[in-house]
Amino acid sequence: MAEIAQVIVDVPTMQTNRPYTYQVPQEWQYQIKIGMRVVVPFGNGTRKVEGVVVGLDETSTYDGQLKKIDSLMDLNPVLNDELLQLSQWMANQTFAFQITCIHTMLPAMLKTKTQKYLHLIDEVDEETFLTQFHGLDEIEFNPEKLTKPQLSQLLKLKKQEKVEVVYRVRDRAKPKTVLGISPALTFEQYEEQRSTLNSQAKAQNRLLSYLQSIIGKTIKLTEARQNSDLSTAVFNTGAKKGWLIKKKVEIYRTPTALQDTAIIESQLKLNDEQQIAVSAINQAVDQHQDKTFLLEGVTGSGKTEVYLQCIKRAIDQGQTAIMLVPEISLTPQIVARVKRRFGSDVAVLHSGLSNGEKYDEWRRIENQEAHVVVGARSAIFAPVTNLGLIILDEEHETSYKQDETPRYHARDVAKWRAKYHHAPLVLGSATPSLESRARAEKKVYHQLMLTQRVNHHPMPEVNVVDMRQELRKHAESNFSTELLEALAQRITRGEQSILMLNRRGYSSFIMCRDCGFVLQCPNCDISLTLHMDTHTMKCHYCGHEEAIPDICPNCHSHQIRYYGTGTQKVEAELAEKLPNARILRMDVDTTRRKGMHEKILRQFGDHKADILLGTQMIAKGLDYPNVTLVGVLNADTGLGLPDFRASEHTFQLLTQVSGRAGRADKPGQVIIQTYNPDHYAIQLARKHDFERFFQVEMQIRHRGKYPPYFYTVQITVSHEDEAVAAKAIFDLASFLNNGLGSTCIMLGPTPRSIARMNRRYYYQMVIKYQHNDRLHALLMQVMQTSQKLKQRGLQISVDPEPQYFI
Ligand SMILES: Nc1ncnc2c1ncn2[C@@H]1O[C@H](COP(=O)(O)OP(=O)(O)OP(=O)(O)O)[C@@H](O)[C@H]1O
Ligand SMILES: [Zn+2]
Ligand SMILES: [Zn+2]
C-alpha cells in the first residue's frame, strides 16, 4: 500500500531529475506500482502532464498540501526496477534528463501526447461561438494553426475569464485487434438448440458442433472460418441466435519480412578457433559472470556462428539474450540467420518497422514470448528479464552512439546491463574500435581471436591502384583499366562483383566555369547536391530543395558544369563501358521506400545482376558465395576529413568491404582505387593487418593526446544570431576554465566546420581529460542552466565521447 508517490514529470523547459511528491488517491493505493505512467497536475492546477512513478512511500512525512495523481495510464508498470535504475545512470552519464532517457527506452507508441483544449466557462457572443468554437463547448487549442486575429480574440476571451485552457494527456498505445468469436452456451445448451433445429439447416448444425468443440476459448474469426469451413454469414446467424459472442482479439503485428519461421536450422560444426571462443563464452554464461569478451575475427571467420551457439546456450538455461547489429535493415541476411535458428523465439527491433510493429515486438518480449532479441542500437533497452548474454556485432560501428539527446553509446548500456544481470558481453568485429582493442590489451576485456576464414578459405588478394598514374594514362574516368578488366572478366565467368563508392547523389555540386560560383544552401554553409532522379538541387542537412539552374545566378553564363562523382554518374559510366553488365544500384535514393534494401539484396543474391554498386551501406555483413570481386572507387574520401578518427574509419571501411569477396570456394580479389596509395590505413588494409594498424594508430593517438589515451567531451552552442552563439560559448569556456584547473586540455572554442545549419550558427569546443572529478559536476550545472537559455533561443548540447569531430 502506498499513499505517497514520487513522480518524475515531463515538462519541457522545466526538466529536473528530482522527482515531485504526489498523493495517491485512495482507490489506487493498492494498485499503484513503481514504473507506471501517471497523469499529474502541474504548476497552477489546470495543467496536466505525464509522469513516471519512481518511488512509493506508505505514509506521508510531508506537511504541506500535496497534489493528487490524476490518473494511472498503465495497469502494469512499463518500466521494471532495472530499467528505472538504468535510466537514472544514463541521465547522469550522458548529461540528459531522466525523463528523456525513459522516453528513449520505451517504444514510441508509449509516448503520450499532451493536447491543449480551450474550454468555454462563460457565455460568449454568438458570432465567436460559431466561428471560433464551431458551436462546441471545447476546441483543440493549437496556436500554430490560428491566424493572428483569431489568436488575439482568444487571448482576449482568456483575459475576460470566459475560457480556460485544459490539458489532456493522450496515450497512443493501441494494441491491434481483429474480430474473434467465443461460445456463449454450455455443451448441454448447444444440444438443446440442436434439437430445435430444422433438419435442412445443415450449416447451423455444423456451427453448433464447432462451437461445442471450442468451449472456453476465443478464436479469431478468420481461423474459425477455416477450421469449420463455414461462412461469415453462418457465424453472424449464430451471433443473432445468441450462440456465440463476437469479441476483439489482440494480435501482434508481425513484420512481413519475418513471418517465414518454418525452417529451424541446425548448428554448424565449429572449427578449432570457433570452438575455443564458444567454450570460453559459454563458461561465462554457465557461471553467470559479467565478463566482457572482445571477439576479434577476420571477415568471413564465422563470428556469427559463435554468437548463435552461445545464444543457444543461454536459452537452453532458460535465460534470454540480446544481439545488437548495426542498423538492421542493412543486414537482412543476419536477421534471417537468427530467425532460421530460433524461429518465433526471436523478436526483431529496428527502425524499418512501423511504430505499431515495434510496440508489438516489445510486448512479445515483455510477455516473455520471445527470448532472443535482435535489433539495432535501441534494442539494448529491450524489456527482457533474466538476461544471460549480450552480443554487439561490429562493435566499432559509430551508429551505436546516438547522435541526439540522450547521447548514449549502446556499448556502455550493454556493459551496465551485463553487470546488472551477471551476464557476459561479447563485442565482435574484424576491426575493433581502438578503445575496445586497447582495453583487451590491458586485460580489462578478454580477447578471443579468429585468425582464419572458415574452411581455410584464403583472405582475398588486394591490389591498390594509384589513380594519379591512371589520370596520366587516359581521360578522366571513375574506373582504372585494371578494375574495368577485372569486372569484364567476372561477367564472362558468371561471377558477381560489388563496387563501393563513398558518396551519394549524381554529382556533388555544380559550378560555373566562368566565375566559379557554387550554388549554396540558403540556410546552411554547405553547397547543394545535384540529384538527377528528382532533377533538383538538395541540401543534405536541412532538406532545402530547388531547381537546377541553367544559367549562373551570379554572372549569367551558360557554362555550368557538374563536379564530383556519385552513384548515379558511376552507374551511367559503367553502363557505357560495360554495356552487357546488369547493374543494381543501392544508395539512399534507391532504398528510400520501405523494403527496398531487402529487395535489392535478394535480387543480387538470386544473381539477377552482375554488379552491385552502392555507398557504404553495401560494405557490411553481406555473405554471397558468388562474389569474387570487390572494387572501391575512391578510398580517399574520408581521409581528408579533419577528424582524428579519419584513418580508423577508412581502415575499417576498406577491411569490411574487402571482406565481401571470396567468402566461399572461389577465391576473391579486391581492387582499391586511391590518390593516396602509400597511406598506412590503405596499405595495412591491403595486408588485412588490423593488429599492425592498431599499433601504428595507437602511437599517433598517444602523441596527439587523443582517445583511447584521453577521454573527450564536446560542447556545442547554437543560436540564430552568430554574435549570441559566440558570446555564449566563450562565457562557457571561461566558466569551465575557472572550475577545471590545468588537468584538462581545451580545444577551441571555434565555429563548427559547417558553421551555419538550418539558419542557426554553431560554435563548439572539445575538452580532453584523463580524469577530472570536477568536470562532471560542472557539465551537469551547464545542463541545468541550459534550460533557461533555451527560452532565449540558445541551444547547448554536451556530447560525451563524440564519434565524429567535424
Ligand atoms: N564452422 C563452420 N563450418 C562451416 N561453415 C561455417 C562455419 N562457421 C561459419 N560458416 C559459414 O561461413 C560463412 C561466414 O561466416 P560468418 O558470416 O559468420 O562470418 P563473420 O565472421 O560473421 O563475417 P563478417 O564479419 O565478414 O560479416 C557463412 O556462410 C557461415 O555460414
Ligand atoms: Zn540546408
Ligand atoms: Zn558564373
Automatic annotation (TrEMBL):
<feature type="binding site">
    <location>
        <position position="521"/>
    </location>
    <ligand>
        <name>Zn(2+) 2</name>
    </ligand>
</feature>
<keyword id="KW-0238">DNA-binding</keyword>
<dbReference type="Pfam" id="PF18074">
    <property type="entry name" value="PriA_C"/>
</dbReference>
<feature type="binding site">
    <location>
        <position position="539"/>
    </location>
    <ligand>
        <name>Zn(2+) 2</name>
    </ligand>
</feature>
<keyword id="KW-0413">Isomerase</keyword>
<feature type="binding site">
    <location>
        <position position="515"/>
    </location>
    <ligand>
        <name>Zn(2+) 1</name>
    </ligand>
</feature>
<feature type="domain" description="Helicase ATP-binding">
    <location>
        <begin position="284"/>
        <end position="450"/>
    </location>
</feature>
<feature type="binding site">
    <location>
        <position position="552"/>
    </location>
    <ligand>
        <name>Zn(2+) 1</name>
    </ligand>
</feature>
<dbReference type="GO" id="GO:1990077">
    <property type="term" value="C:primosome complex"/>
</dbReference>
<dbReference type="InterPro" id="IPR014001">
    <property type="entry name" value="Helicase_ATP-bd"/>
</dbReference>
<dbReference type="Pfam" id="PF17764">
    <property type="entry name" value="PriA_3primeBD"/>
</dbReference>
<keyword id="KW-0547">Nucleotide-binding</keyword>
<dbReference type="InterPro" id="IPR027417">
    <property type="entry name" value="P-loop_NTPase"/>
</dbReference>
<keyword id="KW-0067">ATP-binding</keyword>
<dbReference type="InterPro" id="IPR005259">
    <property type="entry name" value="PriA"/>
</dbReference>
<feature type="domain" description="Helicase C-terminal">
    <location>
        <begin position="547"/>
        <end position="704"/>
    </location>
</feature>
<dbReference type="InterPro" id="IPR041222">
    <property type="entry name" value="PriA_3primeBD"/>
</dbReference>
<dbReference type="Pfam" id="PF18319">
    <property type="entry name" value="Zn_ribbon_PriA"/>
</dbReference>
<dbReference type="GO" id="GO:0016887">
    <property type="term" value="F:ATP hydrolysis activity"/>
</dbReference>
<keyword id="KW-0479">Metal-binding</keyword>
<keyword id="KW-0639">Primosome</keyword>
<keyword id="KW-0235">DNA replication</keyword>
<keyword id="KW-0347">Helicase</keyword>
<dbReference type="GO" id="GO:0008270">
    <property type="term" value="F:zinc ion binding"/>
</dbReference>
<dbReference type="InterPro" id="IPR042115">
    <property type="entry name" value="PriA_3primeBD_sf"/>
</dbReference>
<dbReference type="GO" id="GO:0006310">
    <property type="term" value="P:DNA recombination"/>
</dbReference>
<feature type="binding site">
    <location>
        <position position="524"/>
    </location>
    <ligand>
        <name>Zn(2+) 2</name>
    </ligand>
</feature>
<keyword id="KW-0378">Hydrolase</keyword>
<dbReference type="GO" id="GO:0043138">
    <property type="term" value="F:3'-5' DNA helicase activity"/>
</dbReference>
<dbReference type="Pfam" id="PF00271">
    <property type="entry name" value="Helicase_C"/>
</dbReference>
<protein>
    <recommendedName>
        <fullName>Replication restart protein PriA</fullName>
        <ecNumber>5.6.2.4</ecNumber>
    </recommendedName>
</protein>
<keyword id="KW-0862">Zinc</keyword>
<comment type="similarity">
    <text>Belongs to the helicase family. PriA subfamily.</text>
</comment>
<feature type="binding site">
    <location>
        <position position="555"/>
    </location>
    <ligand>
        <name>Zn(2+) 1</name>
    </ligand>
</feature>
<dbReference type="GO" id="GO:0006270">
    <property type="term" value="P:DNA replication initiation"/>
</dbReference>
<dbReference type="GO" id="GO:0006269">
    <property type="term" value="P:DNA replication, synthesis of primer"/>
</dbReference>
<dbReference type="GO" id="GO:0003677">
    <property type="term" value="F:DNA binding"/>
</dbReference>
<comment type="subunit">
    <text>Component of the replication restart primosome.</text>
</comment>
<feature type="binding site">
    <location>
        <position position="512"/>
    </location>
    <ligand>
        <name>Zn(2+) 1</name>
    </ligand>
</feature>
<feature type="binding site">
    <location>
        <position position="542"/>
    </location>
    <ligand>
        <name>Zn(2+) 2</name>
    </ligand>
</feature>
<dbReference type="InterPro" id="IPR001650">
    <property type="entry name" value="Helicase_C-like"/>
</dbReference>
<dbReference type="InterPro" id="IPR040498">
    <property type="entry name" value="PriA_CRR"/>
</dbReference>
